[in-house]
Amino acid sequence: MKINEKNMVAFATSATPVDREGWLNKRGEVNRGYSRRWFVLKGNILFYFDRRGDKEPVGMIVLEGCTIELAEDEEQFGFKIVFHGPNNRSYALGAESQDSMEQWMKALACASYDYMKLMVAELQRQLDAAEEDTTATSLPAESPKAPPRHRHNPFNKPDTHHRSQSVRSAPGRTENIPRTRVTFRELHTAYGRRILADLNEWRHSKRSMEAPLIAL
Known about the structure:
two-stranded antiparallel ribbon, 4 helices, single chain, 9 strands, about 220 residues
C-alpha cells in the first residue's frame, strides 16, 4: 500500500536495527508483472523501495494476521504473504535463489507480534521448568541412617554413670567409697577397720568364756 505518513517514512530510513534486507521481485496489484524492489524488514513491518538507498519507501506491509506460503505456480523461488479474511490481498514475491527464499520466508514468519508472544510464553515455560529442576536438585539428600545395633560391641566404653558408687567392705556392710580414684591404702584401711573390729570382738568373747574355767 502507498504511504505518506512522515513518521513511518522516518522509521523506514532511520538507523534502527534491520532484521533483513535485500532484493526481491514483487508482483503488482494492478499490473500483474513482477518488478524488482529493495525490501527492508524492521520488526513486524516490511518496507519496499524502488531503489536501494532511496529516502522514502513506495510501500509497506504490516505482518500481522498473515501467513507465509510457497508459491510454486508463480515466480521461480516464489512465496506469498497471505492475509486471511474477505477483501484481503496477498503479496506475491520472488527471491533470487532457493537459499534466499528460505531465509526471507523464515524471517517474515517470525516477525509478527503474535509469533513473538508465543515465543515469550514458550521461553517463560522453559525458564519455569529449569527453575523447578534446579530447586529439586539443590535440596539436600536425606542421609542414610545406621541400622540399630543389637549385639554388644566389646570396644565400646562401659557406661559408669548408672553403676553403683559403693564397694562392699565386709558381709552385711557397705562403705560408700567411690570407685573412681580409690587407692590401695584407702581400700586397706576400710577393710582393715572392720576386720580389726571383728577380731577384737572375738577375743573379748573368748576371754569371757575362759574366765569361769580359770575360777574353777
